[in-house]
Design a protein that fits this description.
The protein is mostly helical and 325 residues long. Helices cover 83% and strands 0% of the residues. The two termini are 41 Å apart.
Amino acid sequence: MRVGRHALLVALKLAVSVSLLSVLLRRADLGGIAAGLRQAEWSWIATALGLYFLMLAVSAWRWQQLLFAQGVDLPIGRLFESFLVATFFNNFLPSNVGGDVVRIADTARPAGSKTLATTVVLLDRGVGLLGLVLVAAVGATIARWSAREAGPVGATTLWAGLVAGTVVSLPVFLAPRTLHVLAGPIRRLHPEWIDERLDRLTGALVRFRQSPAAMAACFGGAVVVQLILVAFYYALARSLGIPIGFAQLSLLVPVSFLVQMAPISINGLGVREATFGLYFRQLGLPLHSALLLSLGGAAAIMAVSVAGAGAYIARLRRRQRIERP
């Protein structure tokens, strides 16, 4: 029953993605897309790929800072490899959860607890989301002041979302024991099991609260990651000859990532392109340019994911050699 429900959900998401892409492609100038691909500058594409690898390295460093705060010391190379493998699973599974599962599995044993490893990854995700909204809010503000462009989401909405997210998350750090109160209703299901994990979770949050430098580094790293992603799309835009500026992309790129989080499509496919198309229309740019940049970015990220597949295969072979008698 559960398998059938999951298959139905995937089918519905696929239908949304295919439907949106079909509508957009019918309205776009396919000749313009072909011309843009023929004129692409490979030097800028190589720059974009290098920036994406740099983003993964900064993400691994940010993750390392959170692990350090929990007394878990892992080399940056190992965490970078884990991020590469996670990127592969994120892009070739119908959700982004697969990558998080990889990261949790890779750190559960060194952390001594799957709960602790999960807490670190979820916190990393949460801080990353705040950094994403901050960059989008600043980009929307600059766009409104400089060219009176509203963008796909207004600056006021983004700043309000950032403040709301901060207000909601702060009490968890200032008073972690409140989690026991919030979890009161579900404790009745399995008190001992739930209490044990709540104790580990609150202990981890206390250690984070006692490590403000690690938290600041994580948030700063999250902002840097988003700026690198904007630079990644800017390099692709330069490659394809699309006249869009860094400031404009600093609004569009984070917002497109926010939109992709909605569980209504396959990894944001179709929804992302619609978001690009909406903003490009506001900028007076053609739809085919929006599709070129959006799908080109997805293709470049998938190309990086191939390295993640290679890292995963190499990992499996190492395990086979170790397990061989």
